[in-house]
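Researcher: I'd like a structural prediction for the single chain below. Treat it as a standalone chain; there are no partners to consider.
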Amino acid sequence: MSEFNENDNIIEEETPVLHLELEDGTEQDCAVIALFSVEELDDQEYIALITVEDLESDDEEGALLLYRYNEDPEDPDTFSLDNIETDEEYEIVTSILDEILEDE
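Model: Treating it as a single chain, here is the predicted structure.
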């Protein structure tokens, strides 16, 4: 699980960008594509990200990164990201995300 302070990690207001530290210690700048909740999974919130490198690339097939998004109830500016653990959860989340992206 990774914890972040929203004020420290977003560098652009119009397209929020998070500075993620990966498990191997490397850092990755990722643009927020969507933040959404999934009713079928007890209204758990999820975040869809794409690396800034993929976003700025001419290649239209950038890899989306999906995580559980958990706000700290005591400090709404602080949140954590957790991995999606099961294939079933992943399938439900990607289905909802597809619907969101189709509507835009």
